[in-house]
Design brief:
Chain A has about 350 residues and is α/β, with parallel strands linked by helices. Helix content of chain A is about 25%, strand content about 25%. Chains A, B: Pfam families: ADH_N, ADH_zinc_N.
Chain lengths: ~350, ~350
Amino acid sequence: MPQANGYAAHSPQSGLAPFRFERRELRPDDVAIAIDYCGVCHTDIHFVQDDWGMTQYPVVPGHEIIGRVTAVGSEVTGFRPGDTVGVGCMVDSCRECEPCSRGLEQYCLEGPVLTYNGQDRRDGGITYGGYSDSIMVNEHFVVRVPETLDPAAAAPLLCAGITTYSPLRHYGVKPGHKVGVIGMGGLGHMGIKFARALGAEVTVFTRSESKVGEAQRQGAHHVIVSTDAAQMRAAAGSFDYMLDTVPVQHDLNPYLELLRYDGTHILVGLVEPVEPPVHAGNLLFGRRVLAGSLIGGMPETQEVLDFCATHDIACDIEMLDIRNINEAYERVKRGEVKYRFVIDMATLKDTQ
Amino acid sequence: MPQANGYAAHSPQSGLAPFRFERRELRPDDVAIAIDYCGVCHTDIHFVQDDWGMTQYPVVPGHEIIGRVTAVGSEVTGFRPGDTVGVGCMVDSCRECEPCSRGLEQYCLEGPVLTYNGQDRRDGGITYGGYSDSIMVNEHFVVRVPETLDPAAAAPLLCAGITTYSPLRHYGVKPGHKVGVIGMGGLGHMGIKFARALGAEVTVFTRSESKVGEAQRQGAHHVIVSTDAAQMRAAAGSFDYMLDTVPVQHDLNPYLELLRYDGTHILVGLVEPVEPPVHAGNLLFGRRVLAGSLIGGMPETQEVLDFCATHDIACDIEMLDIRNINEAYERVKRGEVKYRFVIDMATLKDTQ
């Protein structure tokens, strides 16, 4: 079996440390990838800490993977050695159900196989993610990275990017629409760029007056300080869509009241009970909608990379030496990164 | 001013009693209606008891009104004396905003004027509803009752009917769709009939095994006893739409899990905080939607009456002598009516 080097956590308290493990043999439909960059997603931290009670240790996190093809299986038709490619949150799915056949593998009826901490559909093994030097992935779950994209800055597009791009496309955001973006972290700052590139009038909601300038720098046409009751009141009933990227519990009701009739509040960051509770009256009056959206399917994941190349959109990143990963997690938890850490996997060899 | 006889509540505890009051003079765009029938909606009880803290006493409830035109103002073009007509939950709106211009007066940006306990846009007076012998209504808010409909059974179409019909139409329910109907009261039993008439495969959810036969009699293709975990599990991921008519707090999560990906749970009965809270994961996984819907606009209110005439749909009603209204309210609160009380307004003269 091919050997791989990476970083893994072995218990909720252990933090991440160097880890040597086996990758599967190259399958006929596999692409072998030497990983150059891997983004750090808040989900990685949840899995490392076992916040959701489902982690199987050791866990090698990482689902924003950029690398170069080093070999391809005999049946692979779409990639060749040397290609710059990406792998996101999924590495397999049933490929036969209705969502899969529509390119919505994230909603696979049998459940997609997650890039890490997932269970391989063929050998039953637990998948290891992108905090490592190499990975084998079925070619259907590999995307092509356009040459004009900075490969490091492209890594977060595979989760933070597609997670915000997919619902904006699904709901048909276009010129004339007013879109609010709630939260300005890894997801939120991408949401601003996408909504603007799609032609919408973009308003960022922030709790802090101090972030107004930064929101404008990211492309927001307007900024509303959500703790300012007068600003919130003045915006009542004016938004077509809210893209809510906040990953912790928060009150949706003040934002629902800012939606027009038939407006839609889209949750992409929260995986908790919605508390405080939504008032049903805020949905009935105005026929408003509360929706969720999860990453994106493979065709749309390719599309977001191409869209970024066309519209010259990049994620704002801070490059990270993998030896500083545990410290970086603390900074992510404190919201002290603009806006996404990307691990420079070349630093991994210094740990061997 | 024309005199009217009706029933009113004068305080949260008083119950309803005979009440003599003045109606406005006929305006040029008004239709004067002699009321024959008025449905009893749970909302009437909420207003009488001041459950929502907004009742202005005395309150004359009733927003499912059927009657005959007795006179028309000089500018009225759509109605003539003798016509059988209906009036629902609204009697006015701004008529100029975007929702109004699209025939969605229920979402009027200035707020529609409610049939009772609303404020008249011209004279500022409080509106009195249909528990009375006559009413003056702007012709835009009057609908025509097709001759083939039983006028008494048509009364509840103006609230219970349109409330369930409108979202099924808005979301495009059609053959091939699987629709779940939660709750089998005044709204729910109409939801069954409409979803079936639109060609959907209809499943009723009930907590009680004893209601299975009745649900089938109403037209349900299937019945699921919601307290039976095995039945619920077997239905996971299978519904396109849930029409949730339950007017009290209940856990939506077990129902969200029964929706397909891209499925929609539509609240039409609840006007409370959604508790226990919806788990955001149930929206993200499957890109599901939680929506609300409020009655319907005037074109659609006419449409539902015409639809019922075409498809031979009627509300199941129990005729009520208005002198028994307080007792009837107790039965409504206990869920002991199949499925809607309709006041025979001829009984009002016996109270004078």
